[in-house]
Amino acid sequence: MTSEVHGLLGFYRSPAGAVTARLVRDRLAALWPALPGQAVLGIGHAAPYLGLWRREAARCIALTPSHGSLAPWPPPGAEPTRSASLVAEEEALPFADRSFDRILLVHGLEAAENARRMLREVWRVLHDDGRLIVVVPNRVGIWAQLERTPFGHGQPYSSGQLSRLLTRHLFRPARREAALFLPPVGLRLLSPIAGPCERFGRSLCPRLAGVAILEAEKDLLAAIPAGGGRLRRRVVLPA
């Protein structure tokens, strides 16, 4: 994660950050309403969102890349054996292969020093039937143009660019969502009308959202080289 993304802890502790987190959480909950007994990993700055599943998940871990600021996780009162936070290299995740059922990548991909290596590691630690959600600044949205929020830093993506990137790295895009149709100014004052604005934006102009959200599946078939599994037939003549 580059040093361009900064002030994450301060932003999410502010009234504007609280509104932002609530609007994004609503869309994440629409994609993953419940994850009972599953192992969940958040990469980047996922602590404001992992609370959606902490109580029911078997494990809920927040991983911050080594150049980021460690978020306070788990929250007070959480079971330490089920919730944890750590700092590690995004290109060498400290987990065994197929360790997690679900992975949430937020404030991570757009700030990655090497997106290819990060996605390769995400693919490695995800279960064969696992799913990934990526949240990134929308390239054509106003949030990516202003640096007053964390979504104004790093590499933004359009929904199509994100889909193609994940496909190239052995993920199969499944469902798309969008959030943050309010402008990133005066969020505290606009909070009472945030819900209607979000519904209106998703219905009429989803391409103008502040963030693009994409759920993808681990694509095992794409990882098998073409013809790699073909067997040659041998004919054995009797002696």
Briefly say what this structure is.
The protein is 26% helix and 23% strand. The protein is α/β, with parallel strands linked by helices and 239 residues long.
Q: Average pLDDT value?
A: 87
Q: List low-pLDDT spans.
A: 1-5
Structural class: alpha/beta
β content, as a range?
15-25%
Strand order within the widest beta sheet: 3-2-1-4-5-7-6
- Major sheet size, sense and barrel closure: 7 strands, mixed
- CATH class group: Alpha Beta
Task: Estimate the helix proportion, in percent.
Answer: 25-40%
Number of helices: 7
Level-2 CATH architecture: 3-Layer(aba) Sandwich
- Outline, from the CA principal axes? globular
Number of domains: 1
DSSP E strands, number = 7
**Distance, first to last CA:** 66 Å
Please name the fourth-level CATH homologous superfamily: Vaccinia Virus protein VP39
Protein described:
This protein has a seven-stranded mixed sheet with strand order 3-2-1-4-5-7-6, sandwiched between helices. It has helices at 8-13, 15-31, 47-50, 115-125, 159-168, 187-190, 194-204, and strands at residues 39-44, 59-65, 83-88, 100-106, 126-137, 171-179, 211-218. With 239 residues, it is an alpha/beta fold. The chain is built from seven helices and seven strands. Helix content is 26%, strand content 23%. Residues 1-5 have low confidence and may be disordered. It has one domain (8-221): Rossmann fold (3-Layer(aba) Sandwich), CATH 3.40.50.150.
